[in-house]
Structures are given as C-alpha cells and as structure tokens.
Amino acid sequence: MKPQHKPQMVEAVMFFNHRGICKEMLFPEFEAVLDRVVHLKDFADQQVRVVFILIDPRLHIRAAVFFLIDFDTHGNADTGWNMPLRHIADHAGRGPDLGGGPIRLACRSQCPVSWHQMHMWDPNLKPGQSDLVLLRDAVRRNNLGLLAEEPQLASVAGHDAVKTVDFEHRQRTAQLIRQQRLRLNSLARQHEEELARLRLAGEQQQILLRQEADDLQQALAQQEQLNASLKQRLHSQADGFQKAREELSRQLRLLETHDRSEAEVLRGQFEVELQARIAAAVAEHKEQLSILEVELGYRNELDNQMQDEIDRLTRERDQLAGQGDQLQRLAKLGVMFVAYHPGAGHLTISAQDITRYQQDPQAYVAAKCFVSADHYRDWLEHYQNPACSGTLTSGERCGMPVDRVDTPSRFVRGESNCCSRHKASACTRTS
C-alpha cells in the first residue's frame, strides 16, 4: 500500500479595490476567467489589482505575486494578458513573515522578470493598512473552503519551550526591517516615476510655450512692419495732397489776377496735369493687378501640389490601415510583440501601438521611460559610451571615463556625462 501524500500547495487569486479584498477564487476558476468562460461584470472597463498566492496545508501564505489585469466593457479579461505567475512566485525575492516564515514576494519594486515589471503593483505596507495583513487574514478566514492540516501538538520537553525572549525580539525586529525596506523601495520607485513624469510634462510645456512665444514674436514683427509701411504711405499721401492744395491755391490766385485767356490756358494745363496723374494712377493699378495675378497663379500651383500631397498621404493611410488589419488579426491569434531597448528592458508592444512604434522607436521608448526623445538619445549616447563629453582647450573631446547611469530618468545632461572637471558649472561646450 502506497503511503498517503500530504496536501500540496494551493494556488489562489484575490482581487483588490479601493476598500480592500473584494473577490476570492481558486486559480482554476481564474483560468476560466482568462479563457472567457466566466465574465466578471463587476470589473467591466477597469484595470484591476490582483494577487496570486500559494497557500500551504496549514493556511499559511508562502508566496505572493502582485499583478495587474485589464477587463473590457463586457467584463471579459484581456486576451493578450500572459504572465507566468507560478514561475515568478518560485523565483521571487524574500518578503516578510506572515505566520509561516518569510514568504516569497514579487511586486513592481521587486520583480524577478524585468519585462513584466510594468504589469505589476506595489502593496500598501503602512501600519494598520497593510495589504499583506489583509491577505493573511483572508486566508485564515478560509472562505475558499480549503482542507487544512491540524497543527501537531508540540511535546512538553523540547527546544521550542526554551526559546529566549531575546531571540523572539530579534525575529520580530528582522521582520519589521524587511517590511520597512520593501516599503521604502516602493515609495522611492513611485517618487522616481512621478518625478520623471513631471519632468517630462514640464519639458513639453516649456517647448509649447517657447513655440507660442516665437509665433507671437513673429506676428508682432510682421504687424510692426505693416504699420510702418502704412504710416509711410499715409505721410506720402498727405504730402502729395498738401502740395496739390498749395498748387491749386496758387493757380486760383493767378486766375484772379490774369484775364480769361490766361485762365483758360491755366485750366488747360491743369487738365493735362490731371490726365497725366490719372494715367499714372491707372498704370500703377495695372501693375499691382499683374502682381496679384502672378501671386494667384503661384497659389494655384501650391494648391495643386497640396492636393498631390493629400492624395499621397491618403494612399499611405490606406496602406497603414491594411497593415493595422493584419496586426489586429495577429493580436486575435495571441501573437505578442516584444522589443528590447536599453533603459526600458523588454517592452510588450500591443497591436494598437505597433504603428507608433515603427514611426519612431526611440520616441516610443522615451515615453515609456517618462523622458523626452532628445533626453533619451543623449542618455543612450552616454550609456553606449560612458565618457566625458566636455571639450578640452585644444578643441578635442575630453573622453575621461565616467560612471554609467543605467536609468534614463536619472540622467542629467551636463552632469552625468561629464567628469568632475567638466561638470555643468565649468562645462561650457559639449560635443
């Protein structure tokens, strides 16, 4: 007769909302949710925080993986979601003691598989609000109906009865230290991401304000030039009218002192001069009309060129739409796109983002790292060649080796890529 095996580890998942744990299920039930056999309408159109846990026969948590999953408007799980939860749990780092010894813990700030880090979250470890304590208490309540072993009675005589208070105190202190270290790592990462996001938003806002200021400056210069031209024409016309008035007054005075014949001669001269002025004005207007006709022809030519460009862009749009349909079919078949980039690691690219990624991969990666595209290119040059970019008095690059900054958001131009001699306070030129 074969010996009876002890109960094995039980896999379960627990869902969190703003109030705490809102749903519990065994992992086979969760697999039914992933296969869309079961719909969770309570989570429709949401990104939900979920925890995968391993429970031993005495209802102690042995491992916990904090991950995120999206649901559509009908409560169906994202078909592209694919995380090896058991593999991550088996290779996770050391966590706090929840009653059965230190657990294995995997979260955003402590993930053994780097390209899954963006799909994970950090637990709240504040005293009195700890998510780990909520998990421990939920397992002890055993709402899942797990079969648990009865704890064996310890013998009266044994080394367990002689543990000293000092040892227990050290154990509790070590556990508190691990919890605080995990909490500090989580807060530091959140602060770093928020700082990078604010820095990127500030740089983008500064670029928009600079562009707006340049446009206003250009419009102001054009308006000032137009005002000066109009003022000059106004002065010129006023001088012409004043001279004509003076000339007419002079002629009228001559008419008063000369006889009729002389007046007729003057009238004839006036008519000749008037006709000459009219002819000159007509010629000027004809010249302006010719200029306008040339400008109109040039504008028509530009319109034709713009129409050709619109036709070309329409064709390209249709081609891209065809490619998008192909990508959607691949996505429905479960195909995932993963690309590796320094600073961001392995990126899982959805079918909707493939076109944007193809247009400018570095800009796509920079947005994932919460930095601008120019900032990421400067960091990438430093990452590939960590040497001082300062300029020597001879005009050559310094080239002194510097410490490599592995994270784009921590890279500071003029500081991280310069040696102590060419820091931002003294580095006036960079190659």
From TrEMBL:
Coiled-coil annotated residue ranges, if any: 181-258, 299-330
Keyword Coiled coil part of the UniProt annotation: yes
Origin superkingdom: Bacteria
Keyword Coiled coil: yes
Keywords: Coiled coil
Protein name in UniProt: Chromosome partitioning protein ParA
Organism the protein comes from: Serpens gallinarum
